[in-house]
Automatic annotation (TrEMBL), chain A:
It holds the Pfam family Metallophos. It comes from the Archaea. Signal peptide: none annotated. Gene3D superfamilies: 3.60.21.10. It comes from Candidatus Iainarchaeum sp. This is Phosphoesterase. GO terms for molecular function: hydrolase activity. InterPro entries: Calcineurin-like_PHP (IPR004843), Metallo-depent_PP-like (IPR029052), Pesterase_MJ0037 (IPR004376), Pesterase_MJ0037-like (IPR024173).
UniProtKB/TrEMBL annotation, chain B:
This is ATP-dependent helicase. Belongs to the Lhr helicase family. Lhr-Core subfamily. GO terms for biological process: DNA repair. The keyword Secreted does not apply. The lineage of its organism: Archaea, Candidatus Iainarchaeota, Candidatus Iainarchaeia, Candidatus Iainarchaeales, Candidatus Iainarchaeaceae.
């Protein structure tokens, strides 16, 4: 019995690999050869936006994200996997126009926290990041307009709101995007629960990995029901593979079989 | 003291006390007073709080206004009429306000005419103030305040906070609450009760007058009306009960001799033939259908089947989704006697004088005796006229229900209403309003709110939790400026408003009626209708569902819109939605159960059919078809299985493949069954460590699961003292709690519908509330607004008290459980199994659920690989 349970457990443990060298930790993707950790769509300040709309939601996104990232970093360290670079793949902050003291505090706090766990932070611009510049300059960070190319594995990390048009992107074999906030409803009978998920499929012959949002306030877009927004995903998605994220990744096969 | 008014005053006595002008007008216009007027005018004249219960068309409204007009005339003639409000009239209906103005202005004009042309006008001003009142009209009212102010519960709350206008409310002498029966049982009424206390604070001498349709218990409504003058002392009130003045001619009709060996087409044809015959045999008919969709359908089919008889000019639909102009047009044509027939959902139940109607038809059960009487009372809208009502039934459960319902109506047994108590969301809204008026001592505030009947038993701890919530204590100190609505100084006990926007936030968000979240259904660019949000939860891609008589395939959703494509003639994969349905009242349900027992006795004692039919005619008020159908229905059930009744709860186990259905024949009404079914389903799912599905209705509920269900253990586990705790756990992750939480959070102003000049759609509110509820849970499972949402679900939506009563009956053996296994569902179980309303008791947490499903997915993938 115990043996069986242990086997089950190890069965689960092996499911973090999306592609060889691309592994799921928490809500982020670890690129083994590059020693890079990619996270997407933190949307800090989401609660302030809701407050401004007259929804008095208490704030917890920041603490939640820090907690989750902390666990992922611990797991990586435990397996002896170092982090050279953390790539924030767009939408670090939910909204910029008129930034409050509190909001500065959260963004700077997050960058400080990330800095403690890597050598370099790379910010990829997202569609919400209209004035990321000042913050990045304040912290002395790079902001990449289109994306980051990692030559060793021919991986191109981009937010996903548009398809970049450059030489590196064309060369890339693997593309990593965020933007979509993918989530999937798993149902049985009339019961259904929504989970954040990773997706893996193809985009014009390249491997495409979609990272879920790190935002703790919302789960995301149910790809089984709702219309997708990223141009990378405006294609039949039936063959895309799904990793559901709860306490750890669970491989769920193809979207087609979950509909 | 609350007591019934037994003394009837003579006409002469009343006339002696009235202003001579008014007295003369009364004699000229009516000759004599009506019953309600004889009991109440002089009480109100003597400034006693009075509750008048009488049917529409019995001069009820005038019984309240006569004393008021009389005194205003006296003042006017003595040149003592000041520029202030003397009488506030509150009604739940906006349309009614216009009507009352007509009914008040007309008498006033006529009285002026009695006085003679050359005299100056009476000088009594009447004005309507609602959310629709224009800015210029409002400014005019401020300059020249009306002496009689006609308004709604929401607007009165706004006026109490209007810095200038509220000065006109000081010294109000009378407050009349019309249609009080429609307010006392919901949060709108709770809200009004607090407004009345705030008004009374401005006008300590105010006399309260309630006008009610037939409702029970009147003592409770009176308590609600008057509240308390101090911690222990209830304000006095006289109850004038003159219900059941009109003669009632009521019958249940079955269009067909039985409902079993007939096709849907036959039922359909028989229904419309019956309808047509009834309508043609009367001058003007009013039809109630219960749902909006049915209203449209009935009008459509009548026009289609009898194109020469029913044209757009003489038949019309009336329901709340139709535009205001359309409804007003129908109402006016009805009043003018231009319509042969009007079909409505529930919208013409209350208020407004709708002119001459000689027949009311109810399609399907009105679900409560009070509602049946209210609806049928719309016919013969003049004193001494006869009420004529017919209920047409279309299935056997409906037939039994309506037959017993009519019996109760004719025997004047009215089901009881409940007043929601200690609603924390409404309390939060009002405390905010009171703090905006001025600084207040916390103890004075507590005394003020507990004078209102719905808060008389309010716990101090709950009160202070609401204060803490409003003071933003659930967030960190430096963020308080965003969240706090009031400040509270614990040292000095002072409470005051916080923030410059306070007043505008309050004024634009006041009220208790939630916006309904409707999902727009689109076929390409074309909008074809709306569905309930709860319904969308159930849809998955490629599901086929019916909307407006057509089937559609669900493609995808985005926000509050879904895209569909035509399904041609594919059968639906999801049953239609029945959220509009009215629940059967508990009291009536018990009466039906009692009838079931009497029927069982007939069969046990082997009474011959003729004798039973004869008894049926004697006991119920049914036609030949109906008596026959009732007999057959019960006889089948008796032969096939068991007849459940008020002393015997039958639980029927029926297996279908791997599935076990446990059918509880618990005819207690949907509100009670909602609570009972969730408690048992939760117990069963805990015992089996599996989710169980459940569906429920007025007549019982069904719990379904794979494998065996340990019903005996579940019956032992569910104990009446633990019922609330059990249900609170069962509710925790349900959609209904999240929905009600949105309503409560909106009322408590945690979600502002209207903010910085923008109005949030219901959908946007719902999305916000989903996020909010999970955030609030992190603060505390017992956060006061979340707790209020739970209370609302358990006490207002469900009926946990009646459910506890049922469990007690089971515990004491007063109701025995009878378990039976059937190879096929018994006749009484048919409708229970067909109920569209399904739900699932989520037992597993997300983690266990995802692991289990994942295992299954892994197996499937492994099998596929083997095949390859």
């Amino acid at each position: 019995m115990a043996k069986k349970a242990a086997k089950k457990e190890s069965g689960r443990m092996s499911q973090k690999e999306v592609l060889p060298g691309c592994e799921i930790y928490g809500l982020g993707l670890y690129l083994v050869r590059e020693k890079a950790f990619v996270v997407s769509d933190l949307h800090l300040g989401y609660e302030e936006m809701l407050n401004r709309e007259g929804v008095l939601i208490p704030r917890f996104n920041f603490h939640d994200i820090v907690g989750r990232l902390g666990l992922a970093f611990l797991a990586l360290a435990a397996e002896g996997k170092g982090i050279e670079r953390i790539v924030v793949n767009g939408d670090l902050k939910h909204e910029f126009g008129g930034i409050s003291e509190q909001e500065w505090k959260e963004v700077l706090g997050m960058l400080d926290f990330l800095q403690q766990h890597c050598r370099e932070i790379v910010l990829v611009k997202g569609n919400h990041d209209t004035i990321l510049g000042p913050i990045a300059r304040f912290k002395g960070l790079k902001v990449l307009e289109e994306g980051l190319f990692l030559p060793a594995t021919s991986t191109y990390v981009t937010h996903g709101a548009f398809v970049p048009d450059n030489e590196e992107f064309r060369k890339a074999k693997v593309i990593v995007i965020g933007n979509e906030h993918p989530a999937i409803s798993i149902r049985e009978g009339v019961k259904a629960e929504l989970f954040k998920c990773f997706l893996h499929g193809k985009f014009k012959g390249k491997e495409l990995i979609v990272i879920p949002s790190h935002n703790a306030v919302t789960i995301g877009t149910n790809i089984l029901k709702e219309k997708v927004i990223s141009p990378f995903l405006k294609q039949p998605l039936g063959d895309f593979k799904v990793w559901v994220i709860e306490d750890q990744p669970y491989y769920f096969g193809k979207i087609r079989d979950l509909q | 003291m609350i007591e019934r008014q037994t003394e009837k005053y003579s006409d002469e006595e009343i006339h002696r006390n009235l202003n001579p002008l008014l007295s003369a007008w009364f004699r000229q216009k009516f000759g004599s007073f009506t019953e309600p007027q004889r009991y109440s005018i002089l009480n109100i004249h003597a400034r006693l709080n009075t509750l008048v219960s009488a049917e529409t068309g019995t001069g009820k409204t005038l019984s309240a206004f006569t004393a008021v007009i009389s005194e205003l005339l006296n003042l006017s003639q003595g040149n003592q009429l000041e520029d202030k409000v003397y009488c506030v009239y509150v009604s739940p209906l906006r349309a009614l306000n216009n009507d009352i103005q007509r009914n008040l202005l007309e008498p006033l004009e006529e009285i002026a005419a009695v006085q003679g042309k050359k005299e100056r006008k009476l000088g009594i001003r009447v004005a309507v103030r609602t959310g629709d009142t224009t800015t210029s009209e409002r400014a005019k009212m401020l300059r020249k305040p009306p002496h009689i102010l006609i308004t709604t519960p929401e607007t009165i709350a706004i006026l109490l906070n209007a810095p200038k206008f509220r000065e006109n409310l000081r010294g109000v002498k009378w407050c009349i609450v019309d249609e009080i029966h429609a307010l006392a049982s919901n949060k709108r009424g709770v809200h009004l009760a607090l407004s009345l206390e705030r008004l009374q604070r401005l006008a300590p001498e105010m006399t309260r007058i309630g006008l009610s349709a037939t409702v029970a218990p009147l003592e409770l409504v009176a308590e609600y009306l008057v509240g308390y003058e101090s911690e222990r002392v209830q304000r006095p009130c006289k109850i004038v009960d003159v219900s059941f003045l009109k003669k009632m001619d009521l019958k249940v009709l079955s269009p067909l001799p039985n409902f079993i060996d007939v096709t849907p087409e036959q039922v359909h044809r028989a229904l419309y033939d019956t309808l047509d015959k009834l309508i043609q045999g009367h001058q003007t008919t009013l039809v109630f259908t219960n749902t909006r969709s049915a209203t449209e359908r009935v009008v459509h089919h009548l026009k289609e089947k009898f194109p020469k008889k029913y044209l757009s000019g003489n038949i019309g639909a009336h329901h709340s989704s139709l535009s205001r102009e359309h409804r007003l047009n129908i109402e006016n044509r009805l009043k003018q006697g231009k319509l042969k027939c009007v079909v409505c959902s529930t919208s013409l139940e209350l208020g407004i004088d709708i002119g001459f109607i000689d027949l009311v038809i109810l399609l399907g059960s009105p679900k409560s005796v009070a509602r049946a009487i209210q609806r049928m009372g719309r016919s013969g809208h003049k004193l001494h006229d006869q009420v004529k009502g017919r209920i047409i039934v279309l299935d056997r459960d409906d037939l039994v229900e309506c037959a017993v319902l009519l019996k109760n109506a004719l025997e004047k047994k009215i089901d009881k209403i409940q007043v929601p108590l200690n609603c924390l969301d409404v309390l939060a809204q009002h405390i905010f309003g009171i703090a905006i008026e001025d600084k207040i001592q916390v103890e004075d505030l507590f005394r003020l709110v507990t004078r209102a009947f719905p808060y008389h038993s309010l716990k101090r701890t709950d009160f202070f939790e609401v204060i803490d919530y409003l003071a933003g204590e659930y967030t960190s100190l430096e963020l308080r400026y965003v969240y706090a609505k009031i400040w509270f100084d614990r040292e000095t006990g002072w409470i005051g408003k916080r923030g410059k926007m306070a007043r505008i936030i309050y004024m634009t968000n006041v009220g208790t009626i939630p916006d309904e979240a409707k999902i727009k259904v689109k076929l390409g660019e074309q909008t074809i209708g709306t569905i309930d949000e709860m319904f969308l939860e159930r849809l998955k891609k490629n599901d086929v569902f019916v909307l407006g008589g057509e089937s559609y395939v669900f493609n995808f959703s985005r926000g509050m819109t879904i895209q569909v494509r035509s399904a041609e003639k594919r059968p639906p994969t999801v049953p239609s939605w029945a959220s509009e349905m009215l629940p059967l009242s508990f009291d009536l349900a018990l009466e039906i159960q009692r009838f079931r027992r009497l029927m069982e006795e007939k069969f046990v004692y082997r009474k011959p059919k003729t004798e039973v039919i004869e008894w049926l005619h004697e006991y119920l008020y049914v036609d030949e078809n109906s008596a026959n159908a009732i007999y057959e229905y019960f006889h089948e059930q008796f032969l096939f299985a068991e007849i459940p009744h008020d002393k015997k709860l039958v639980i029927e186990a029926y297996c279908e493949g791997e599935l076990t259905h446990l059918i509880f024949h618990s005819l207690f009404g949907r509100r009670t069954n909602d609570a009972l079914s969730k408690a048992y389903a939760y117990a069963l799912s805990r015992l089996t460590h599996k989710d169980v599905e459940l569906s429920m209705g007025d007549n019982g509920f069904v719990i379904t699961s794979e494998g065996k269900l340990p019903i005996d253990t579940a019956l032992r586990i569910v104990k009446s003292p633990d019922l609330r705790m059990l249900l609170e756990m069962a509710l925790d992750r349900t959609e209904v709690l999240s929905r009600r939480f949105r309503h409560c959070a909106t009322r408590a102003l945690m979600i502002l519908r209207s903010y910085r000049g923008k109005t949030k759609s219901a959908g946007r509110q719902q999305m916000s509330s989903r996020l909010l509820i999970s955030a609030v849970r992190r603060i505390s499972r017992d956060f006061c607004i979340l707790r209020e949402a739970r209370r609302e679900v358990l006490e207002d939506l469900m009926d946990i008290d009646s459910a506890a009563k049922v469990v007690q009956w089971l515990e004491s053996g007063q109701v025995k459980v009878r378990k039976i296994a059937t190879p096929l569902p018994s006749p009484f179980a048919f409708n229970l199994l067909l109920q569209g309303y399904g739900d699932v008791m989520k037992m597993e947490d997300r983690l266990a659920f995802i692991r289990r499903i994942h295992e299954r997915v892994m197996q499937r993938i492994a099998e596929k690989q083997k095949v390859v």
